[in-house]
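Much of our argument rests on the idea that a fold can be written as discrete symbols. Part of our work consisted of pairing the sequence of a single chain with a tokenised description of its backbone. The amino acid sequence and the backbone structure tokens for this protein are reproduced below.
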Amino acid sequence: MANIDHAPSKYLLNLLHVLPAFADEAENRLNAIVEVSAGSINKYELITEAGILKLDRVGYSSLSYPFTYGAIPRTWDLDGDPLDICIVGVTEGLVPGSLVEARVIGVMKFIDGGEVDDKIIAVLADDKRVEHIKSIDDLGTHWKKETQHYWEFYKHLKKPGTGSVEGFFDVAEAVAVVKECEERYEKDYAPKLAA
């Protein structure tokens, strides 16, 4: 894991632009950079240009992230940010800024303030506790209800009614979303990178 095909540098590498989205495409394993550990109300976000975590905001309510949250390298979603990933079933909190490999189990289609802001749903790739989870359906109906509630109400005290979950979809749809976001990254964002 984390074998970076890049010559040593005296400057810090920005993993958002150095690592590929897929750590192992045949196994549906993604590289993911952790931004928020489950249980936090603080929203940290990677600065796209620098790859450094910034406190984006303190949550307006007591709703805390019910999963670990992060970004997928070399992807670009329609909201103008790297594609988001929600990693479920994490036993011990992950350190924000750390790199993990996560196995795709589905996608949640989401509209935030009128913009597409989809969330890939995954589990840690090498955690035996979750290896039996192959599909988003394995998480159960209540998990979907709880997750939908979180996303539709986490900004409610600041901007009521701005989040809308459009549904939960399978691994094939999730992989298609990742690939679409990889293509968008290459077309829209990669040309802006300094040589």
Summary: The beta strands are 22-24, 29-36, 42-46, 53-58, 68-71, 84-87, 99-112, 115-116, 119-124, 163-169. The chain has a mean pLDDT of 93. The chain has one domain: 15-190. The first helix runs from residue 15 to 18.
